[in-house]
Amino acid sequence: MSKLDAVRAMREARYAEAQTRAGAGRPAPRRAPGPASKPSTPPAPEPTASDEELCGHRNIGGRTCTRERGHAAKTHRYG
C-alpha cells in the first residue's frame, strides 16, 4: 500500500467513525410543558442609573463602552 492509499484509508475510516458517532448521538433532553400564557422570553432588566450615564456603544464582541454618554474622545473604552 502506498503512502497516499494509507492516508486515503485513514481519512475514510475517520469519516465513517464520525458518521456513526453523529447517527448514534444522545437523545434530546425532554422539556416539561409550561403554561401556555407565559411568554417564552424573560423581561429585559431595568436600566440602573449608572447604565443610563454610559455611552453604550457595543463592539463586535458584544462588549459595551464604559465612557460617559456623549464623550468627546474619538475612541471607545471597553472593559
TrEMBL record:
Annotated Basic and acidic residues bias: 1-15
Biased composition range(s): Low complexity: 21-39
Superkingdom per UniProt: Bacteria
Region Disordered, annotated ranges: 1-79
Protein name, entry field: Uncharacterized protein
